[in-house]
Amino acid sequence: MIRFEGVTKRYGDADSGSADGGSPGEGGGDPGSVAVDNLTLEAPTGQITVLVGPSGCGKTTTLRMVNRMVTPTSGTISVDGRDTASMDVAELRRGMGYVIQHAGLFPHRTVVDNVMTVPRLLGVDKRQARSRAMELIERVGLDPAMARRYPAQLSGGQQQRVGVARALAADPPVMLMDEPFSAVDPVVREQLQNEFLRLQSELGKTILFVTHDIDEAVKLGDQVAVLRVGGVLAQLASPAKLLADPVDDFVAGFVGRDRGYRALSFAAAPELSLTDEPTVRLRATGEQVRAIGSPWVLAVGDAGEPVGWVRAAAVDHEVTRDLLHRGGTVASTAGSLRALLDAALSSPSGRGVVADDDGRLVGTITAAEVVPAIEARRSATTAGELPEGASTR
Amino acid sequence: MTWALDHLSEILTRAGQHAWLAGLPLVLGLVIALPLGWLASRTSWLRASLLTTTGLLYTIPSLALFILLPSILGTKILDPVNVIVAMTIYTVALLTRTVADGLSSVDPSTRQAAIAMGYGGFARFRAVDLPLAVPVIAAGLRVAAVSNVSIVSVASLIGISQLGYFLTDGYARSFPTEVWVGIIACLLLALVFDLVIQVVSRALTPWTRAVAA
To answer: What are phi and psi for residue A392, nearest 5 degrees?
Structure first.
């Protein structure tokens, strides 16, 4: 557990504060400005705590105070009950994985040597450090053949995976992550986020994660701390609670529009009766398609997986992949109400496609059928307490 | 050409002396410039004063330095140590800024990651900042090498044996061939220095040639 107690960071005073060369980062601009103001916060063991807020809210400063790259002006920070100010700084830092925006890999070292850095600094012998590094390289989803490459030979997403592997190499209980996925494109970002969640479910690290992206915060955090400019904690809550019940206008504004819809992400799809959907195979003839008697017909692949909707009138000879409508999303039976509603709304036929865990078609559902489930959930939650989602402790 | 062949052993001897007088200061100067450049790259108020001071050293005329040093060092005027010391001063003058620039050129996120991994001052210099500064430092060394080879020839005016002798002797005897031999020998020596620095630099920086696969 990482615990902040009354932590304040003021820049421009007698001490410039940032230890050996660490730049003050955001909020360090004008003299005497307060970057973090009397912050009290707990990041529980084994969970992801996300610090989110606009530029100048002191989130990066907060993160860097944990490994003492920035020295707090007042207050204490403890990790598992030990005051960080009393610890040897190198020992403190080597006990925490650190991942940053552009990965910060050492360009002059190969991927495997980068990953081996902290174990080698801790005195682990070369062979052991190497085999551990190779294991991690695979674990973060990289081809072991990349181990011999230099960072310049990797894509941004691959570099970021190496950054995560390097932070994990010494198996630190704590991970500090400063906008690790912000510099990659949205598709890669989503992949990295999903794999990060998968890794965390296996490893159970105590993670402090900084982002400016509220969607990322809500997706990754077990709890989310929203900071306002000047480093004041505005709200600390589970993502579901944050979306359902922002504490003031600032948080409501920062959490953004569509929060009613986005909150459905945290509601598991209930058991709904799905409609059996008549389907055609790929390569079905135009007559077969029109025999179903619906303007939009769902096509499935050989394993029974939905591949897309086809407009019956558009099929001349047979159903081919380039005739398929690409707009519809597929919801999973194990997914959320949001995914279910989205599948219905995005489907050209108005019938949302639902598949099982193996990706096989189970049936379809319309938006009109999803809404009562949402209404039922609302009356259940207003009767009881607000949706709490993941526990905060 | 025949003159050069007839005097080949003398040319080679003087080239060896020239290489020693220009090369040893290059190594000594680098050894001194590394800590100076490191200090300059770490402390902003030291940077300005250190770089101005070392830069100014380069403006002292070499002949003046060759003549003044014996009285400062207590050496004889013909002692090659005077030349070694003078050339070392010039090398430091050229390299301190280069080293400081090279060390400062390390990507901030790389440096930040190094700090976060618990690399302290000197360990970070040795393991991260210095290896990454090699290309910049090597570029500075190449300039210093060529400059040293050229300045050392001036030492023939105070009678210290090296390739510059052919320039002064050829001029005194109005014998252009000998002057040309001196110039070409200096040029070849500078090329050799340049080549050696490039080869060593390449060997130290395989990562700079790694391009996206």
So the answer is: -95, 5
CA separation for the pair A170, A187 (Å, rounded) = 29
Q: What is the ipTM of this complex?
A: 0.84
Q: What CA–CA distance (Å, rounded) separates A255 from A52?
A: 10
Coil, strand, or helix at residue A174?
Answer: strand
Helix (H, G, I), strand (E, B) or coil at B20: helix
Report the candidate in A1, A67, A9, A77 with the shortest Cα–Cα distance to residue A38.
A9
Query: Which residues of chain A neighbour B111 with C-beta distances below 8 Å?
Result: 21, 104
Report the residue from B110, B120, B121 with minimal CB separation from A104. Answer: B110
What does the block give as tokens for B149? 């080879």
Strand partners, A330: A353
Tokens coding A121: 């600094």
Please count the residues of chain A: 393
String of DSSP letters for A371-384: HHHHHHHHHHHHHS
Bridge partners (DSSP) of residue A281 are A300
Could B210 and A152 be called an inter-chain contact, meaning their C-beta atoms sit closer than 8 Å? yes
Tell me the two tokens of residue A30: 């004008």
Domains of chain A: 2-95+173-266 (3.40.50.300), 279-375 (3.10.580.10)
Radius of gyration from C-alpha coordinates of chain B: 20
Q: Centre a 10 Å sphere on the Cβ of residue A256 and count the other Cβ atoms it contains.
A: 13
Q: What is the rounded CA–CA span in Å between residue A89 and residue B123?
A: 14
**Residue type at position A361:** L
Q: What is the pLDDT along chain A (393 residues), one digit of tens a residue?
A: 999 999 999 987 544 444 443 344 444 445 578 999 999 999 999 999 999 999 889 999 999 999 999 999 999 999 999 999 999 999 999 999 999 988 899 999 999 999 999 999 999 999 999 999 999 999 999 999 999 999 999 999 999 999 999 999 999 999 999 999 998 888 889 889 999 999 999 999 999 999 999 989 999 999 999 999 989 999 999 998 998 899 999 999 988 878 888 888 888 888 888 899 999 998 888 888 888 888 999 999 888 889 999 998 888 888 888 888 888 888 888 888 888 999 999 999 999 999 988 889 999 999 999 998 888 887 776 655 544 444 333
Interface test with A, best of B47, B103, B207, B211 (most A CBs within 10 A): B207
Taking an 8 Å cut-off on Cβ atoms, the answer to whether B110 and A109 are in contact is no
CA distance A210 to chain B (A): 16
Domains annotated for chain B, with CATH where assigned, are: 2-204 (1.10.3720.10)
- Contact: A101, B109; criterion CB under 8 Å: yes
